[in-house]
Amino acid sequence: MRITDVKYEMVNLKMAIPLKITYTSMADCPAVFVKISTDEGICGYGEAAPFAPVTGETEVSVLSVLKMFTPFLIGADPLDIAGIHAKMDSCIYGNGSAKCAVDIALYDIASKAAGLPLYRYLGGSSSTIVTDVTIGMDEPAVMAERAMDWIGRGFKILKLKTGSDPAADLDVIRRIRRAAGEDVLIRIDGNQGYTEQTLLAILPELAALGVMAVEQPLPYWDIDGLARLKASSGTVAIMADESLHDPHDALRLCRAKAADTLNIKLMKCGGIYPALAINAIAESFGVNCMVGCMAESKLAISAALALVAAKDNISEADCDSFLLIEDQGLEMKGGFTYSGCSIQLSETPGLGLDIDF
To answer: Nearest Cα to 346, choosing from 312, 299, 311?
Structure first.
């Protein structure tokens, strides 16, 4: 089998409600879809969801990088995923979401060629996944109201964006606990907004309120600070996100004992192939993983969910961005269905999506 054509299409994912975090607010989120065709009539689809503050990319840079990749993709064996990653890495450093778009399309082709849904191609057996839902920063009363709305729709795990005001963070968590009781699980995501001292000051109350984890409380570069927080955090897990891009970062974090959980995002690391390496490293150190997402459509989310379903060490899913954009399916059928927080993956080969462009 050989690649015969590579096409790109820019799309805009509009958030239903702008999602505010410590360092930006997201309303319109451009993405790039990729279609890779082969001489055997099998096509694969991928998606790049660039996020400049984290991946250092824009939709314009993604298109430039994909055009850079095209000459060596044409004529290549799409099943040689390792070899194509090596060529992409030798061509340009970083640019995780551009590489991810190609990677997802290759895995779509490979699993279609094998006649298996992607999650089974990756070694999975269970097709049911539970995801959390994210609530952006706002006034505590507004965040609590949105939380109760999601809980009413069947969501049992909340991820609250925090980090700008510790007092307000505690206020919203207290409000949700009073309204929802103890059955709802809560994790908070500081998006690099805390200092070590401010988080240490509120950790005891976070624990008393039953917060299960704090994601990326410190700047991405402060691995030593994360390690100190992990050593002092008690029942509250410390999760690394922006500090983790590639397998080398995973090894560094695990050796430093800087995180209880690693948040793998396909757009940061470059797709499923490096994500598998990150999970293997984490598992060897006894560290569990979560698969998260940027502002991604159903296309990329289908790939992320397949990865969650495939690996037992990936025990958490933060694959909710399709719920937060206005047009959840972008006219795509298949991939998965959901009821509340429970997601059921398709048994159709590949990503299982009905898509063409």
So the answer is: 299
Structural domain for 68, as ranges: 3-114
State if pTM tops 0.85: yes
Which residues does the annotation mark as catalytic?
161, 189, 215, 241, 265
Mean pLDDT, each 10-residue run in order, the chain (357 residues): 97 91 90 97 98 95 97 98 98 97 98 98 95 96 96 96 96 95 95 97 97 98 98 96 98 98 98 98 98 95 98 97 77 87 96 89
Query: What does the alpha-carbon distance between residue 299 and residue 328 come to, in Å, rounded to a whole number?
Result: 10
Burial of 125 (0-12, 13-18, 19+ CB in 10 A): exposed
* Number of domains comprising the chain: 2
- Write the DSSP string, 87-117: HHHHH-S--HHHHHHHHHHHHHHHHHHHTSB
* 99 and 148 assigned to the same domain: no
Same domain, 130 and 106: no
Residues 166 and 107 in one domain: no
